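Class prep. Protein, please:
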Amino acid sequence: MDNRQIMKIIGIVCLVVCAVCIFVAIERYQTNASNVRAMNSFRQSSPLGGITGPMRPATPAATKYAILFAVISGVAGAVLLIKSARPQTDAGSAVQSETNI
């Protein structure tokens, strides 16, 4: 395999990792939101539940890191796919064409 095919394969793998990280981030956030909903319903049913206001879901650290890795791998995959699609220019041919002028 040549260098372009390897870059294309690595770019596709990076985009797949990006998609997996996005799904992990969504799943982690939804789990946190459902846990907060359950805690709010538990607090409303208890006799002392009305003392404090309802809890709101925050973004968990796992979601933040998954989004960060999704952005990094998505950018890397896009760059690799773009570089693999461009025709490679040979430095020797560029110098040779300048001397022929």
User: Anything to note?
Assistant: Residues 3-87 form one domain. The longest helix spans residues 3-45. The chain has three helices and no strands.
